Amino acid sequence: MEDALTAWNSETTPARVHGLSRNPALPDPLVLRILDHPAAAMSDILYGRELSDELFGILAAHPDVRLREVLARSGGVTPDQRARLIDDPSSSVVFTLLEWPGVLPAWGYRKLAAHPKVKRRLPLYLPIELPRAVVAAFAEVDDEEIAAWARPKPDPEPQAEPEPKTADQYRTIATGESAWERARIAMDPALPADLITTLAADPEPHVRQYLSMRPGLSEEQRAAIDYEVSTDDRLPVLGWVLEARGDQLQRCVSSAHPGIRRSAACHPELTADQIAALAADDDFPVRLLLCENHDAVPADLVVRTFLEARVITRGNLLSHPAMAGADLTRYADSPYWGARALVVRDPHAPPELIDRLSRDEHPGVRYWMASDPRLSQQRVLELFDDPEVTGSAAANPKLPVELMVAILDAPLDTEDPPQDQILVMGHTMPTHEPVGEV
To answer: Distance (Å, rounded) from C-alpha 237 to C-alpha 213?
Structure first.
Protein backbone atom coordinates (compact mmCIF):
# COMPACT_ATOMS: atom_id res chain seq x y z
CA MET A 1 0.00 0.00 0.00
CA GLU A 2 2.74 2.46 0.89
CA ASP A 3 4.52 1.76 -2.40
CA ALA A 4 1.32 2.53 -4.30
CA LEU A 5 1.16 5.95 -2.68
CA THR A 6 4.55 7.05 -4.02
CA ALA A 7 3.42 8.03 -7.52
CA TRP A 8 1.03 10.89 -6.72
CA ASN A 9 1.46 13.86 -9.02
CA SER A 10 -0.59 16.38 -10.96
CA GLU A 11 -0.92 14.02 -13.92
CA THR A 12 -1.91 10.81 -12.16
CA THR A 13 -4.49 12.31 -9.81
CA PRO A 14 -7.05 13.30 -12.51
CA ALA A 15 -6.61 9.92 -14.19
CA ARG A 16 -7.21 8.14 -10.90
CA VAL A 17 -10.31 10.19 -10.13
CA HIS A 18 -11.66 9.47 -13.59
CA GLY A 19 -10.99 5.75 -13.15
CA LEU A 20 -12.52 5.75 -9.69
CA SER A 21 -15.68 7.14 -11.29
CA ARG A 22 -16.08 3.76 -13.00
CA ASN A 23 -15.25 1.60 -9.98
CA PRO A 24 -18.29 -0.58 -9.21
CA ALA A 25 -17.09 -1.15 -5.62
CA LEU A 26 -17.09 2.54 -4.71
CA PRO A 27 -18.92 2.79 -1.33
CA ASP A 28 -22.03 4.98 -1.16
CA PRO A 29 -20.38 7.72 0.95
CA LEU A 30 -17.59 8.02 -1.63
CA VAL A 31 -20.09 8.13 -4.49
CA LEU A 32 -21.48 11.28 -2.90
CA ARG A 33 -17.97 12.70 -2.48
CA ILE A 34 -16.79 11.98 -6.01
CA LEU A 35 -19.87 13.57 -7.58
CA ASP A 36 -18.56 16.94 -6.43
CA HIS A 37 -15.00 16.30 -7.59
CA PRO A 38 -13.98 18.49 -10.59
CA ALA A 39 -12.07 15.63 -12.27
CA ALA A 40 -14.89 13.08 -11.97
CA ALA A 41 -17.10 11.96 -14.86
CA MET A 42 -20.69 12.13 -13.69
CA SER A 43 -21.98 9.82 -16.40
CA ASP A 44 -19.40 7.17 -15.50
CA ILE A 45 -20.37 7.38 -11.83
CA LEU A 46 -24.10 6.84 -12.35
CA TYR A 47 -24.55 4.89 -15.59
CA GLY A 48 -25.08 1.24 -14.74
CA ARG A 49 -24.24 1.58 -11.03
CA GLU A 50 -26.72 -0.17 -8.74
CA LEU A 51 -27.90 2.33 -6.15
CA SER A 52 -29.34 1.60 -2.73
CA ASP A 53 -32.69 3.24 -2.02
CA GLU A 54 -31.02 5.50 0.50
CA LEU A 55 -28.36 6.69 -1.95
CA PHE A 56 -30.92 7.03 -4.73
CA GLY A 57 -33.06 9.24 -2.51
CA ILE A 58 -30.10 11.52 -1.79
CA LEU A 59 -29.21 11.78 -5.49
CA ALA A 60 -32.84 12.33 -6.53
CA ALA A 61 -32.88 15.38 -4.24
CA HIS A 62 -29.53 16.71 -5.49
CA PRO A 63 -29.74 20.39 -6.54
CA ASP A 64 -27.86 19.77 -9.83
CA VAL A 65 -30.51 19.06 -12.45
CA ARG A 66 -27.88 17.59 -14.79
CA LEU A 67 -27.14 14.92 -12.21
CA ARG A 68 -30.84 14.06 -11.90
CA GLU A 69 -31.13 13.82 -15.70
CA VAL A 70 -28.23 11.35 -15.75
CA LEU A 71 -29.94 9.47 -12.91
CA ALA A 72 -33.11 9.19 -15.02
CA ARG A 73 -31.07 7.63 -17.84
CA SER A 74 -29.03 5.31 -15.64
CA GLY A 75 -29.23 1.62 -16.39
CA GLY A 76 -28.49 0.74 -12.77
CA VAL A 77 -31.62 2.17 -11.16
CA THR A 78 -34.68 -0.03 -10.64
CA PRO A 79 -38.04 0.71 -12.35
CA ASP A 80 -39.54 1.78 -9.01
CA GLN A 81 -36.62 4.11 -8.34
CA ARG A 82 -36.88 5.65 -11.79
CA ALA A 83 -40.61 6.24 -11.29
CA ARG A 84 -39.88 8.34 -8.20
CA LEU A 85 -38.34 10.93 -10.52
CA ILE A 86 -41.74 11.64 -12.08
CA ASP A 87 -42.25 14.10 -9.21
CA ASP A 88 -39.02 15.95 -10.04
CA PRO A 89 -39.56 19.74 -10.19
CA SER A 90 -37.56 20.01 -13.44
CA SER A 91 -39.34 19.46 -16.75
CA SER A 92 -36.11 18.21 -18.30
CA VAL A 93 -35.95 15.30 -15.83
CA VAL A 94 -39.59 14.37 -16.47
CA PHE A 95 -39.12 14.54 -20.23
CA THR A 96 -35.99 12.39 -19.90
CA LEU A 97 -38.22 9.71 -18.36
CA LEU A 98 -40.62 10.14 -21.26
CA GLU A 99 -37.99 9.98 -23.99
CA TRP A 100 -35.44 7.54 -22.56
CA PRO A 101 -36.08 3.79 -23.07
CA GLY A 102 -35.74 3.00 -19.36
CA VAL A 103 -38.37 0.75 -17.81
CA LEU A 104 -41.06 2.07 -15.48
CA PRO A 105 -43.55 0.00 -13.46
CA ALA A 106 -47.14 -0.04 -14.74
CA TRP A 107 -48.24 2.51 -12.14
CA GLY A 108 -45.32 4.71 -13.18
CA TYR A 109 -46.51 4.90 -16.78
CA ARG A 110 -50.01 5.84 -15.61
CA LYS A 111 -48.57 8.55 -13.39
CA LEU A 112 -46.31 9.83 -16.18
CA ALA A 113 -49.25 9.98 -18.59
CA ALA A 114 -51.21 12.04 -16.05
CA HIS A 115 -48.36 14.50 -15.49
CA PRO A 116 -49.63 17.94 -16.60
CA LYS A 117 -46.36 18.84 -18.38
CA VAL A 118 -46.37 15.54 -20.26
CA LYS A 119 -50.04 15.97 -21.25
CA ARG A 120 -49.29 19.41 -22.67
CA ARG A 121 -46.21 18.33 -24.61
CA LEU A 122 -47.30 14.89 -25.80
CA PRO A 123 -49.15 16.16 -28.94
CA LEU A 124 -45.82 17.54 -30.18
CA TYR A 125 -44.43 13.99 -30.50
CA LEU A 126 -45.16 11.28 -33.00
CA PRO A 127 -45.56 7.88 -31.32
CA ILE A 128 -42.55 6.54 -33.21
CA GLU A 129 -40.39 9.22 -31.56
CA LEU A 130 -40.88 7.74 -28.08
CA PRO A 131 -39.85 4.34 -26.65
CA ARG A 132 -42.21 1.51 -27.54
CA ALA A 133 -42.86 0.69 -23.88
CA VAL A 134 -44.07 4.25 -23.25
CA VAL A 135 -46.38 4.27 -26.25
CA ALA A 136 -47.79 0.80 -25.46
CA ALA A 137 -48.48 1.79 -21.84
CA PHE A 138 -50.05 5.11 -22.82
CA ALA A 139 -52.44 3.27 -25.17
CA GLU A 140 -53.95 1.54 -22.12
CA VAL A 141 -54.48 4.55 -19.83
CA ASP A 142 -57.95 5.80 -18.93
CA ASP A 143 -57.32 9.23 -20.44
CA GLU A 144 -58.94 8.80 -23.87
CA GLU A 145 -57.04 11.70 -25.42
CA ILE A 146 -53.67 10.18 -24.54
CA ALA A 147 -54.79 6.65 -25.36
CA ALA A 148 -55.98 7.78 -28.80
CA TRP A 149 -52.62 9.47 -29.43
CA ALA A 150 -50.79 6.23 -28.60
CA ARG A 151 -52.99 3.78 -30.52
CA PRO A 152 -51.82 2.70 -33.99
CA LYS A 153 -53.20 4.95 -36.70
CA PRO A 154 -54.63 3.61 -39.96
CA ASP A 155 -52.28 3.79 -42.90
CA PRO A 156 -52.67 7.05 -44.78
CA GLU A 157 -54.09 7.00 -48.25
CA PRO A 158 -51.30 6.35 -50.75
CA GLN A 159 -50.27 9.48 -52.55
CA ALA A 160 -50.42 9.58 -56.29
CA GLU A 161 -47.16 8.73 -58.03
CA PRO A 162 -45.44 11.84 -59.40
CA GLU A 163 -45.57 12.32 -63.11
CA PRO A 164 -42.57 10.65 -64.78
CA LYS A 165 -39.99 12.99 -66.22
CA THR A 166 -39.92 13.51 -69.92
CA ALA A 167 -36.78 13.02 -72.00
CA ASP A 168 -36.50 16.81 -72.37
CA GLN A 169 -36.65 17.26 -68.58
CA TYR A 170 -33.86 14.70 -68.12
CA ARG A 171 -31.77 16.52 -70.71
CA THR A 172 -32.37 19.87 -69.03
CA ILE A 173 -31.13 18.47 -65.72
CA ALA A 174 -28.20 16.58 -67.28
CA THR A 175 -26.90 19.76 -68.89
CA GLY A 176 -27.86 22.05 -66.02
CA GLU A 177 -25.67 23.66 -63.38
CA SER A 178 -26.83 21.65 -60.37
CA ALA A 179 -24.37 18.81 -59.69
CA TRP A 180 -26.74 17.51 -57.00
CA GLU A 181 -29.58 17.20 -59.51
CA ARG A 182 -27.32 15.54 -62.06
CA ALA A 183 -26.16 13.03 -59.44
CA ARG A 184 -29.78 12.37 -58.45
CA ILE A 185 -30.85 11.38 -61.94
CA ALA A 186 -27.64 9.42 -62.59
CA MET A 187 -29.08 6.30 -60.95
CA ASP A 188 -32.62 6.77 -62.25
CA PRO A 189 -33.57 3.63 -64.26
CA ALA A 190 -35.62 5.79 -66.64
CA LEU A 191 -32.66 7.95 -67.66
CA PRO A 192 -32.41 7.97 -71.48
CA ALA A 193 -29.48 5.91 -72.75
CA ASP A 194 -27.79 8.81 -74.55
CA LEU A 195 -27.65 10.77 -71.28
CA ILE A 196 -25.71 7.95 -69.65
CA THR A 197 -22.92 8.78 -72.09
CA THR A 198 -23.34 12.49 -71.32
CA LEU A 199 -23.09 12.00 -67.53
CA ALA A 200 -20.16 9.58 -67.92
CA ALA A 201 -18.14 12.62 -69.02
CA ASP A 202 -19.55 14.92 -66.33
CA PRO A 203 -16.86 17.17 -64.80
CA GLU A 204 -18.18 16.49 -61.27
CA PRO A 205 -16.65 13.26 -59.81
CA HIS A 206 -19.69 12.78 -57.57
CA VAL A 207 -21.97 12.55 -60.61
CA ARG A 208 -19.75 9.97 -62.31
CA GLN A 209 -19.53 8.01 -59.06
CA TYR A 210 -23.33 7.80 -58.79
CA LEU A 211 -23.70 6.96 -62.47
CA SER A 212 -21.35 4.02 -62.04
CA MET A 213 -23.74 2.50 -59.46
CA ARG A 214 -26.89 2.59 -61.57
CA PRO A 215 -28.70 -0.69 -62.25
CA GLY A 216 -28.52 -2.39 -65.61
CA LEU A 217 -24.88 -1.66 -66.39
CA SER A 218 -22.45 -4.46 -67.15
CA GLU A 219 -19.12 -4.66 -65.34
CA GLU A 220 -17.43 -3.46 -68.51
CA GLN A 221 -19.71 -0.43 -68.72
CA ARG A 222 -19.07 0.45 -65.08
CA ALA A 223 -15.32 0.13 -65.58
CA ALA A 224 -15.48 2.49 -68.55
CA ILE A 225 -16.78 5.30 -66.30
CA ASP A 226 -14.04 7.40 -64.72
CA TYR A 227 -15.23 7.07 -61.10
CA GLU A 228 -13.40 6.87 -57.79
CA VAL A 229 -14.53 5.40 -54.47
CA SER A 230 -12.45 6.02 -51.36
CA THR A 231 -12.67 4.31 -47.98
CA ASP A 232 -14.12 7.50 -46.48
CA ASP A 233 -16.89 7.95 -49.08
CA ARG A 234 -20.37 7.59 -47.57
CA LEU A 235 -22.32 5.95 -50.34
CA PRO A 236 -26.07 5.26 -50.39
CA VAL A 237 -27.31 1.72 -49.83
CA LEU A 238 -28.65 0.81 -53.26
CA GLY A 239 -32.25 -0.33 -53.25
CA TRP A 240 -31.84 -2.33 -56.44
CA VAL A 241 -29.02 -4.32 -54.84
CA LEU A 242 -31.10 -5.06 -51.73
CA GLU A 243 -33.86 -6.36 -54.02
CA ALA A 244 -31.48 -8.56 -56.00
CA ARG A 245 -31.83 -12.33 -55.83
CA GLY A 246 -30.09 -15.35 -57.30
CA ASP A 247 -27.56 -14.66 -60.04
CA GLN A 248 -28.07 -10.91 -59.85
CA LEU A 249 -27.18 -10.88 -56.16
CA GLN A 250 -24.11 -13.00 -56.87
CA ARG A 251 -23.00 -10.51 -59.51
CA CYS A 252 -23.33 -7.73 -56.94
CA VAL A 253 -21.26 -9.67 -54.40
CA SER A 254 -18.48 -10.26 -56.93
CA SER A 255 -18.72 -6.85 -58.63
CA ALA A 256 -15.51 -4.88 -59.12
CA HIS A 257 -17.37 -1.79 -57.88
CA PRO A 258 -16.86 -1.19 -54.13
CA GLY A 259 -20.13 0.72 -53.82
CA ILE A 260 -22.14 -2.22 -55.13
CA ARG A 261 -20.33 -4.68 -52.86
CA ARG A 262 -20.99 -2.37 -49.90
CA SER A 263 -24.71 -2.50 -50.62
CA ALA A 264 -24.49 -6.27 -51.12
CA ALA A 265 -22.98 -6.57 -47.64
CA CYS A 266 -26.28 -5.13 -46.30
CA HIS A 267 -28.42 -7.70 -48.12
CA PRO A 268 -30.44 -9.74 -45.59
CA GLU A 269 -30.33 -13.01 -47.58
CA LEU A 270 -26.65 -13.63 -48.25
CA THR A 271 -25.54 -17.23 -48.42
CA ALA A 272 -22.66 -18.56 -46.33
CA ASP A 273 -20.39 -18.51 -49.40
CA GLN A 274 -21.34 -14.91 -50.17
CA ILE A 275 -20.65 -13.87 -46.57
CA ALA A 276 -17.27 -15.59 -46.77
CA ALA A 277 -16.45 -13.77 -50.03
CA LEU A 278 -17.36 -10.36 -48.60
CA ALA A 279 -15.51 -11.13 -45.36
CA ALA A 280 -12.33 -11.40 -47.43
CA ASP A 281 -13.04 -8.18 -49.35
CA ASP A 282 -10.15 -5.72 -49.57
CA ASP A 283 -12.53 -2.77 -49.08
CA PHE A 284 -12.85 -1.93 -45.38
CA PRO A 285 -16.41 -0.48 -45.55
CA VAL A 286 -17.59 -3.76 -47.12
CA ARG A 287 -16.29 -5.70 -44.14
CA LEU A 288 -17.66 -3.17 -41.65
CA LEU A 289 -21.14 -3.22 -43.22
CA LEU A 290 -21.05 -7.01 -43.30
CA CYS A 291 -20.34 -7.11 -39.56
CA GLU A 292 -23.01 -4.51 -38.84
CA ASN A 293 -25.70 -6.36 -40.80
CA HIS A 294 -24.97 -10.06 -40.23
CA ASP A 295 -24.56 -12.20 -37.14
CA ALA A 296 -23.07 -15.20 -38.97
CA VAL A 297 -19.62 -13.74 -39.52
CA PRO A 298 -16.36 -15.08 -38.04
CA ALA A 299 -15.15 -13.59 -34.77
CA ASP A 300 -11.77 -12.97 -36.43
CA LEU A 301 -13.47 -10.67 -38.93
CA VAL A 302 -15.17 -8.70 -36.16
CA VAL A 303 -11.89 -8.33 -34.27
CA ARG A 304 -9.96 -7.29 -37.37
CA THR A 305 -12.69 -4.81 -38.32
CA PHE A 306 -12.72 -3.35 -34.81
CA LEU A 307 -8.97 -2.85 -34.89
CA GLU A 308 -9.09 -1.08 -38.24
CA ALA A 309 -12.25 0.98 -37.64
CA ARG A 310 -12.14 4.75 -37.47
CA VAL A 311 -15.91 5.21 -37.18
CA ILE A 312 -17.61 6.56 -34.09
CA THR A 313 -19.67 3.37 -33.74
CA ARG A 314 -16.67 1.04 -33.64
CA GLY A 315 -17.35 0.13 -30.01
CA ASN A 316 -20.61 -1.53 -31.07
CA LEU A 317 -18.56 -4.26 -32.73
CA LEU A 318 -17.50 -5.50 -29.30
CA SER A 319 -21.15 -6.43 -28.65
CA HIS A 320 -21.45 -8.38 -31.91
CA PRO A 321 -23.04 -11.84 -31.42
CA ALA A 322 -19.93 -13.47 -32.92
CA MET A 323 -17.93 -12.15 -29.97
CA ALA A 324 -20.22 -13.58 -27.30
CA GLY A 325 -18.97 -17.16 -27.44
CA ALA A 326 -15.64 -16.54 -29.12
CA ASP A 327 -12.40 -17.75 -27.60
CA LEU A 328 -10.62 -14.44 -27.25
CA THR A 329 -7.71 -16.00 -25.39
CA ARG A 330 -6.23 -17.02 -28.72
CA TYR A 331 -5.33 -13.37 -29.31
CA ALA A 332 -3.06 -13.30 -26.26
CA ASP A 333 0.04 -13.52 -28.47
CA SER A 334 -1.24 -11.45 -31.40
CA PRO A 335 1.28 -9.01 -32.90
CA TYR A 336 -1.40 -6.29 -32.56
CA TRP A 337 -1.72 -4.86 -29.07
CA GLY A 338 -5.39 -4.09 -29.63
CA ALA A 339 -6.12 -7.76 -30.21
CA ARG A 340 -4.19 -8.76 -27.10
CA ALA A 341 -6.20 -6.23 -25.09
CA LEU A 342 -9.46 -7.87 -26.15
CA VAL A 343 -8.58 -10.99 -24.15
CA VAL A 344 -9.93 -9.21 -21.08
CA ARG A 345 -13.43 -9.40 -22.59
CA ASP A 346 -13.37 -13.20 -22.52
CA PRO A 347 -15.06 -14.32 -19.28
CA HIS A 348 -13.27 -17.67 -19.54
CA ALA A 349 -9.78 -16.18 -19.68
CA PRO A 350 -7.94 -17.54 -16.61
CA PRO A 351 -6.57 -15.14 -13.99
CA GLU A 352 -3.04 -16.25 -14.86
CA LEU A 353 -3.45 -15.03 -18.42
CA ILE A 354 -4.93 -11.70 -17.32
CA ASP A 355 -1.98 -11.29 -14.96
CA ARG A 356 0.50 -12.06 -17.76
CA LEU A 357 -1.11 -9.55 -20.09
CA SER A 358 -1.14 -6.95 -17.31
CA ARG A 359 2.66 -7.06 -17.72
CA ASP A 360 2.54 -6.58 -21.51
CA GLU A 361 5.10 -4.25 -23.06
CA HIS A 362 2.33 -2.06 -24.51
CA PRO A 363 0.61 0.30 -22.03
CA GLY A 364 -2.68 -0.11 -23.89
CA VAL A 365 -2.81 -3.82 -23.06
CA ARG A 366 -1.87 -3.18 -19.45
CA TYR A 367 -4.54 -0.48 -19.26
CA TRP A 368 -7.31 -2.80 -20.41
CA MET A 369 -6.24 -5.47 -17.92
CA ALA A 370 -5.75 -3.15 -14.96
CA SER A 371 -9.45 -2.81 -14.09
CA ASP A 372 -10.21 -6.53 -14.30
CA PRO A 373 -11.24 -8.16 -10.99
CA ARG A 374 -9.43 -11.39 -11.92
CA LEU A 375 -6.18 -9.69 -10.94
CA SER A 376 -4.90 -10.11 -7.41
CA GLN A 377 -5.06 -7.11 -5.15
CA GLN A 378 -1.27 -7.01 -5.04
CA ARG A 379 -1.10 -6.78 -8.84
CA VAL A 380 -3.77 -4.06 -8.82
CA LEU A 381 -1.62 -2.04 -6.43
CA GLU A 382 1.42 -2.49 -8.66
CA LEU A 383 -0.55 -1.25 -11.66
CA PHE A 384 -1.93 1.62 -9.60
CA ASP A 385 1.66 2.76 -9.14
CA ASP A 386 2.25 2.65 -12.92
CA PRO A 387 1.54 6.19 -14.23
CA GLU A 388 0.58 4.86 -17.67
CA VAL A 389 -2.27 2.68 -16.39
CA THR A 390 -3.05 4.08 -12.95
CA GLY A 391 -6.45 5.41 -14.05
CA SER A 392 -7.62 1.96 -15.08
CA ALA A 393 -6.30 0.39 -11.86
CA ALA A 394 -8.37 2.95 -9.94
CA ALA A 395 -11.47 1.39 -11.54
CA ASN A 396 -10.63 -2.08 -10.24
CA PRO A 397 -13.11 -3.27 -7.57
CA LYS A 398 -10.21 -4.79 -5.63
CA LEU A 399 -8.71 -1.37 -4.99
CA PRO A 400 -8.62 -0.90 -1.18
CA VAL A 401 -11.12 1.61 0.18
CA GLU A 402 -8.25 3.47 1.86
CA LEU A 403 -6.78 4.18 -1.57
CA MET A 404 -10.16 5.31 -2.87
CA VAL A 405 -10.31 7.84 -0.04
CA ALA A 406 -6.71 8.89 -0.71
CA ILE A 407 -7.56 9.55 -4.37
CA LEU A 408 -10.36 11.91 -3.39
CA ASP A 409 -8.18 13.60 -0.76
CA ALA A 410 -5.25 14.18 -3.12
CA PRO A 411 -4.60 17.77 -4.24
CA LEU A 412 -5.67 18.44 -7.80
CA ASP A 413 -3.70 20.52 -10.25
CA THR A 414 -6.25 22.45 -12.30
CA GLU A 415 -3.98 22.55 -15.35
CA ASP A 416 -4.66 19.92 -17.98
CA PRO A 417 -2.07 17.13 -18.32
CA PRO A 418 0.03 17.00 -21.50
CA GLN A 419 -1.82 15.69 -24.54
CA ASP A 420 0.34 12.59 -24.85
CA GLN A 421 -0.45 11.71 -21.23
CA ILE A 422 -4.17 11.99 -21.97
CA LEU A 423 -3.81 9.55 -24.82
CA VAL A 424 -1.94 7.04 -22.70
CA MET A 425 -4.29 7.26 -19.74
CA GLY A 426 -7.49 7.32 -21.77
CA HIS A 427 -9.34 4.02 -22.02
CA THR A 428 -10.29 4.36 -25.71
CA MET A 429 -8.30 2.03 -27.91
CA PRO A 430 -6.54 3.91 -30.74
CA THR A 431 -7.17 2.73 -34.27
CA HIS A 432 -4.71 0.77 -36.36
CA GLU A 433 -3.68 0.70 -39.94
CA PRO A 434 -5.18 -2.24 -41.89
CA VAL A 435 -4.24 -5.52 -40.25
CA GLY A 436 -3.83 -9.04 -41.49
CA GLU A 437 -4.10 -12.14 -39.36
CA VAL A 438 -4.76 -11.18 -35.77
So the answer is: 10
